[in-house]
Write a structure and sequence with these properties.
- It is a single chain.
- α19 crosses α20.
- The strands form 2 sheets. Strands 1-8-7-3-4-5-6-2 form an 8-stranded mixed sheet. An 8-stranded parallel barrel has the order 9-10-11-12-13-14-15-16, surrounded by 6 helices.
- It has 585 residues and is of the alpha/beta class.
- Helix content is 47%, strand content 13%.
- The structure holds phosphoenolpyruvate and magnesium ion.
- Magnesium ion binds next to α17.
């Protein structure tokens, strides 16, 4: 006898998933280990040594699992960390400190810091990289001591959490994540974007979710199953046989609908009266290229390179980055442009090893291009890697900077771009002849400045996720503001119309790479407003192509005019749905 609980949230990424819960929680575990961690279960020395052994075991298991999946480079990081966890120098120092202070958690942290500082001081690139690893190992031992063990799923599971940091999502081996259900978050949260790129469902803002799966802490979580529909936002905790059968039926229906829409893939996207619209893909890693090409993407409109910086202990080197970009450029070839976005770090995309200062309002803080004023090396390394990748692949790379807000930000971008090339030329290293350069328009000031900025660059790409949060002052991660996070709000559409006008005057194209571009109704409105290119997750391209094929240019022009004058996003959705004949895709 099951007690099914039906809940609802905001649809984040389409698809159906049915499976056991994997509960991610940053607070002390309440499941398998009553009383939390090892602290207090023995002498400080005994608990430190036991926690270190357990940490080493977890790291080795993670390495083995990644190796089994062919992710050898990542596996090697965890293998090395497994050895560090039981390193006598680290443990003896921690035990000594704990004997003085009686606080094993703080003792391990201080011992790890002291080893890390020693390594960092050696002024050797490889050893200073290990410093961050030692600190991370110290933090992991601390988590075991406190009972805050991060168990990755051991069977394919649905992640349930209040929020799921992108770095944690990235650490879960592919195939082990069937879907993501969050009690917090928003449909443009990065965990959701990652879900779309993995082709798995995600639902956010599910009230009552954590309570309903209560007792599902690791590792007993496998006992609780949930079913979710990423299109309707429904979540059923402990589904009955009848409900499970219903979700299986939906899964089959969705597969049929997807197969129908995919029949248009061989043709370029166009309106019903034959006007072409460039349809390209958003990707997060080189491995996403195959899925994007199979979905008929005519290129990449947004390569979110910050994912290359996650799930690791140090930034990727210039050579590692060069290889990653070259792989994507070669996969798409000279006919299909690839827009590489410079690392968008900050906001909800924290990279622990960069140790950026904590901020009260990270979304309004020293984020993305702003980081490069004080610390240009990160972007210079990235730009050199892109110049080299273009030369190696024999194509002209396209690059854009996130979060450009002022003319000074654009000056910085252009000067770093040129400086990176000069360095390579100075060392006689091959670099592409030129770099097509654009900016993301996602800060309202950039939208206001569009006419001036447009004259100095090759293209605009509008990031409607951030533009919406900044225009409407609604944190994109705050589920309580879901009603304000619809990019079809006429205020956002007016900003987009201004950007298109500025671009038209300068003769440059405008793309949209925020989530609105992958929403069939959003795509109609955007093309109506004069946007030239839509960039969305591979899984959304079929739906957008099908929607465009059902509307003519005059219909889209009228839709755009009415949308700009509409009172709210809901009305805009109704207007767009009417163009599709009431089918909302
Ligand atoms: C956006 O803000 O719309 C965007 C595409 O960038 P990100 O979602 O990565 O912030
Ligand atoms: Mg953005």
């Amino acid at each position: 006898m099951t007690n099914s609980v039906r809940l609802s949230g905001v649809a984040g990424s389409p698809g159906i998933a049915i499976g056991p819960v994997w509960r991610f929680d940053v607070t002390p575990s309440t499941g398998a280990a009553p009383g939390g961690g090892l602290v207090g279960t023995g002498s400080p020395e005994a608990v430190i040594r036991a926690a270190a052994t357990e940490t080493a075991r977890q790291l080795e298991a993670l390495g083995d699992r990644l190796r089994g999946l062919g992710r050898d480079a990542e596996a090697a990081i965890f293998d090395a960390q497994g050895l560090m966890a039981t390193d006598p120098m680290l443990l003896d120092d921690a035990v000594r400190r704990a004997a003085d202070s009686g606080d094993p958690v703080e003792a391990v942290r201080l011992a790890a810091s002291s080893v890390a500082e020693m390594l960092a001081a050696l002024d050797d690139e490889i050893l200073s990289a290990r410093a961050a690893d030692v600190r991370d190992v110290g933090a992991r031992i601390g988590r075991v001591l406190r009972g805050e063990v991060l168990h990755l799923p051991v069977v394919p599971s649905i992640a349930v959490a209040e929020d799921l940091p992108p770095s944690v999502t990235a650490e879960i081996p592919p195939g082990f994540l069937l879907g993501i259900a969050l009690s917090g978050g928003s449909r443009t949260a990065h965990a959701v974007i990652l879900a779309r790129s993995l082709g798995i469902p995600a639902i956010v803002g599910v009230d009552g979710l954590l309570g309903a799966v209560d007792g599902a802490g690791p590792p007993a979580s496998a006992a609780v199953a949930i079913a979710m529909d990423g299109e309707t936002g429904e979540v059923v905790v402990r589904p009955s046989h009848r409900l499970e059968a219903e979700f299986r039926r939906r899964e089959a229906d969705l597969a049929i609908r997807r197969a129908d829409a995919s029949r248009l893939r061989d043709r370029p996207a166009a309106t019903a009266d034959g006007e072409r619209v460039m349809l390209v893909a958003n990707i997060g890693t080189p491995a996403d290229s195959g899925r994007a090409l199979a979905a008929g993407a005519e290129g990449v409109g947004l390569f979110r390179t910050e994912f290359l910086f996650m799930s690791r202990q140090t930034p990727p080197t210039e050579n590692e980055q060069m290889e990653a970009y070259r792989r994507v450029l070669e996969a798409f070839g000279p006919e299909r442009p690839v827009v590489i976005r410079l690392a968008d770090i900050g906001g909800d995309k924290a990279i622990p090893y960069l140790r950026l200062a904590a901020e009260q309002n990270p979304f309004l803080g020293v984020r993305a291009i702003r980081l490069a004023y004080a610390n240009p090396d990160l972007l210079l390394t990235q730009l050199r890697a892109i110049w080299r990748a273009g030369a190696a692949a024999g194509v002209v790379p396209h690059v854009m900077a996130p979060m450009v807000a002022t003319a000074a930000d654009l000056d910085l971008l252009l000067s770093l771009r040129d400086q990176a090339r000069e360095t390579l030329v100075g060392k006689s290293l091959p670099a592409a002849e030129r770099m097509v350069t654009g900016i993301m328009v996602e800060v309202p000031s950039a939208a206001f400045l569009a006419p001036e900025l447009a004259r100095r660059i090759d293209f605009f790409s509008i990031g409607t996720n951030d533009l919406t949060q900044y225009v409407l002052a609604a944190d994109r991660g705050n589920a309580a503001l879901a009603g304000l996070q619809d990019a079809l709000h006429p205020a956002v559409l007016r900003a987009i119309a201004g950007v298109v006008a500025g671009a038209d005057a300068a003769g440059i194209p405008v793309a949209v790479c925020g989530e609105l571009a992958g929403d069939p109704l959003g795509a109609l409105v955007l093309v109506g407003l004069g946007v030239d290119e839509l960039s969305a997750d591979a899984g959304s391209l079929d739906g957008v192509r099908a929607a465009l094929a059902r509307a003519t240019r005059p219909q889209l022009d009228e839709l755009a005019a009415r949308a700009l004058a509409a009172p709210d996003a809901e009305t805009v959705r109704e207007l767009a749905a009417a163009v599709l004949g009431g089918v909302t895709g």
